[in-house]
From TrEMBL:
Cofactor(s) named in the record: Mg(2+); Mn(2+)
Name of the protein: protein-serine/threonine phosphatase
Domain of life: Eukaryota
Keywords: Hydrolase, Magnesium, Manganese, Metal-binding, Protein phosphatase
Catalytic reaction list: O-phospho-L-threonyl-[protein] + H2O = L-threonyl-[protein] + phosphate; O-phospho-L-seryl-[protein] + H2O = L-seryl-[protein] + phosphate
E.C. code: 3.1.3.16
Gene (name only): LOC111499058
Family per similarity comment: Belongs to the PP2C family.
GO molecular function: metal ion binding; protein serine/threonine phosphatase activity
SMART domains assigned to the protein according to its UniProt record, in alphabetical order: PP2Cc
Enzyme class: hydrolase
Length: 345
């Protein structure tokens, strides 16, 4: 679990009490943090307001399993009051928590120390992701079958730079008339994507669902529908002559074994200029989006004036849906960042 620098955590938020029975049972595993009431972006005369919620998943077979999600928020990067960073890191594997925390710390360190960051954020992002991946490989952490995804948003003035590796997600809310629409700021990197599927296949990966690996479904059927409507058996990556690593994503940091069959740490970077009709953006782990669409998350966030209430409601609904579909839940981490006072004059 990540912590905002110099700020403390509230481990027993009163707003969670009574929100839902399932969610209330493990309030002690939830962290809610409000760092600052607002972050000014003086260059364009607006400010950001944000809140973070992170909740450990429920794993009946491992009741004491640690939260493998972490997050990082850094304001005024390189002393620039108009540059701010938000990131969520979703660890996986036996050493997932160590991987996500390592990457959280190293990635922001490299961005902060890159003199070209504000002149060329895309180049800085690529360098930071790849160098962090290399350093994780050579660290004391065993990342052969462990790693982390990373979804990050760098705000520079009125521009967002969104860098993604894996299947966590960033979404922005756009006001159009009387509607608030969700626009994805990242594209999940999984075998559901034809381009990613073909890329890992060329690198030697077998792409099969667990049912196909176990012989319950014909492995020659290379069609799994789409990610939004797909059930609980997604296509995964396997080595040619083994039943590992079984990753459901095609990019990550770490995962040195999966790297040999095409899993890479190269981020996809989206650039978006903010406009007056951009209301807020959400940065969250796939524990949120497993059963909630981007539009549903934006709809829920739009219905609450307070980001804390929005985070709590979204996390509670995610938790409830996990328990309805599975006998466990994933770790859930969500950052909601409101954009206040921006005009395009």
């Amino acid at each position: 679990m990540g912590c905002i620098h110099t700020k403390c955590c509230c481990r027993y938020p009163k707003s969670l009490v009574g929100e839902s029975q399932d969610f209330h049972e493990e309030d002690k595993n939830t962290v809610i943090e409000r760092s600052l009431e607002f972050i000014p972006v003086a260059s364009h005369n607006y400010h950001l307001e944000y809140l973070v919620l992170s909740r450990r998943g429920f794993y009946p077979e491992s009741p004491d399993k640690e939260n493998q999600d972490s997050f990082c928020i850094r304001t005024s990067i390189q002393g620039n009051p108009n540059a701010h960073f938000f990131g969520v890191f979703d660890g996986h594997g036996q050493f997932g928590m160590q991987c996500s925390n390592f990457v959280k710390d190293k990635l922001i360190e490299k961005l902060c120390n890159d003199p070209k960051l504000l002149d060329n954020p895309i180049q800085a992002y690529n360098s930071a992701f790849l160098c962090t991946n290399d350093e994780l490989h050579t660290s004391e952490i065993d990342d052969s079958m462990s790693g982390t995804t990373a979804i990050t948003v760098l705000v520079v003035g009125d521009t967002l730079y969104v860098a993604n590796v894996g299947d966590s997600r960033a979404v922005i809310a756009v006001k159009e008339g009387n509607r608030v629409l969700a626009k994805d700021l990242s594209n999940d990197q999984t075998p559901f994507r034809k381009d990613e599927y073909e890329r890992v296949r060329l690198c030697g990966a077998r792409v099969l669902s667990v049912d196909q690996v176990e012989g319950l479904i014909d492995p020659d059927i290379q069609c799994w529908g789409d990610e939004e409507s797909q059930g609980g058996d997604p296509p995964r990556l396997w080595v040619q002559n083994g039943l590992y690593p079984g990753t459901a994503f095609t990019r990550s940091i770490g995962d040195s074994t999966a790297e040999k069959i095409g899993v890479i740490a190269v981020p996809e970077v989206l650039v978006l200029q903010l406009k007056a009709n951009h209301l807020f953006f959400v940065v969250a782990s796939d524990g949120v989006f497993e059963f909630l669409s981007s539009q549903t998350v934006v709809d829920m966030a739009s219905s609450y004036a307070d980001p804390q209430d929005a985070c709590t409601a979204i996390a509670a609904e995610s938790y409830k849906l996990w328990m309805e579909h599975e006998n466990r839940t994933d770790d859930i981490t969500i950052i909601i960042v409101h954009i206040e006072g921006l005009s395009n004059v």
